[in-house]
C-alpha cells in the first residue's frame, strides 16, 4: 500500500515537549566507528621526517669523505683550475636541488617503504572545500530547478566566497558576477517562467519581478556593491538568494526521478517540509536567553526536511510526526549528537533503506554508503552543524532506524582535512535545524 505525501510544501508544528538530558554518553545508536574513530586517530611522525634525517646523514658522510684531510692536502692541490672548481660547485647545487625535490615531492626514496603509509593518512589527501557549510546553502543546492536558475545561483554564491577576503575585497569581480546573473535572468525569462506549473505561474511572475528590480533583488545588490559596503552586500546577497530559492521551489513541485518499485510501499515526501520542535529540559531549568531576551523554559527548533534528496527517509519521518510518535520523547546529548530516545513502539515507522543522494547524480543510492576518500560527496552533507539524520538500524547498517533520529553537532576541530566529518556519507541526512544551537 503506497502512502505518498505528495505536497511539495509540508508544514507541521510539533509540540513534543521533549526533555533534554545533557551529557549522557549514548553512542550505541551510531555505527561502531562513529563514537570511537576520533579516539583512534593520533598524531604520528610523517615519513618525510625520517627520510630527511637519513638524507642529512648521507650528505654529511659524503662531505666528510670528499673533504681534504689536512692543510698539506689543501696546499698540494692548489693547481685545481677555476673551471673544475666551478663544476664541482655546480654539481653540489644540483645535488642539493635533487634532495629538496625528493623531500618535498612523492618521489621514491631509498630505504622508504611506501607500503608503510597507513590508510588513515591516505584518506586525508583528498579534501573538498566546496562542501556546503550551512543548512540553508545545502538545501538551496538540493532543489532540482531549471538549469538557468542554477547558473544564476552559482554566480551569486561565488560572491559569498569573495566577501570572506579579509583585506581589499574584489568588488569589481562581484559586480561582474551580478551582471552575469542579470543577463541570464533577462535572456532566459521565458524558459524560467515556462518551467513553473501553470497554477503557480502568476506567483512565479511576481517573484521574478522582485528578483530583478525589487528591494533585495539583483539591481539592489548591484547598488550595494558599487557603494563598497560589505555589510550591505552581505544583506542584499542573502535576500537575492532567498528569492532565488523561492523561484526554484516553484519550478520543482515534485520528484524529478522515479522511485524503485520495491520502495513504493513506503510513505514519501516529494518536496520540502517544515517542522517545529518544542523542547524543555528534564531538570526544569531554563534555556539560555537570546540577545535581549528572557530565559525560557521551552525552546523551539525549526527543522526543514528535504524530500528532493531523501524522499523515503523524509516521508517516514513526516508520517511519524503527523502520527504524534515523537510527543514526549526524551532527547539525550553526547559530545557528537543529540539523539532521540529509542523507546518508541517497535511498530512505529518503517525500516527505510539507507538513502543518500550523491552530488552530481539524479537519484539517491539505496543501501550504499559513499566513499569520501574517492571523491564521493552527498548533496545533503553530515558535515554541517544541526544536520538531521536517522540512526542506523539495530539489525543492519544498510537500513536506517524506523524512528530514532539525531541532530549532528558538527565540529571542524574533530574533522579530517578539508573539514569533512569522518562519518560523512554513512548516514541518511534528510534535513537541517536552521535555528539550532547547543548553547540552549
UniProtKB/TrEMBL annotation:
<dbReference type="InterPro" id="IPR048563">
    <property type="entry name" value="CYP38_PsbQ-like"/>
</dbReference>
<dbReference type="InterPro" id="IPR023222">
    <property type="entry name" value="PsbQ-like_dom_sf"/>
</dbReference>
<feature type="domain" description="PPIase cyclophilin-type">
    <location>
        <begin position="286"/>
        <end position="440"/>
    </location>
</feature>
<dbReference type="Pfam" id="PF00160">
    <property type="entry name" value="Pro_isomerase"/>
</dbReference>
<protein>
    <recommendedName>
        <fullName>PPIase cyclophilin-type domain-containing protein</fullName>
    </recommendedName>
</protein>
<dbReference type="InterPro" id="IPR044259">
    <property type="entry name" value="CYP37-like"/>
</dbReference>
<dbReference type="InterPro" id="IPR029000">
    <property type="entry name" value="Cyclophilin-like_dom_sf"/>
</dbReference>
<dbReference type="InterPro" id="IPR002130">
    <property type="entry name" value="Cyclophilin-type_PPIase_dom"/>
</dbReference>
<keyword id="KW-0793">Thylakoid</keyword>
<dbReference type="Pfam" id="PF21329">
    <property type="entry name" value="CYP38_PsbQ-like"/>
</dbReference>
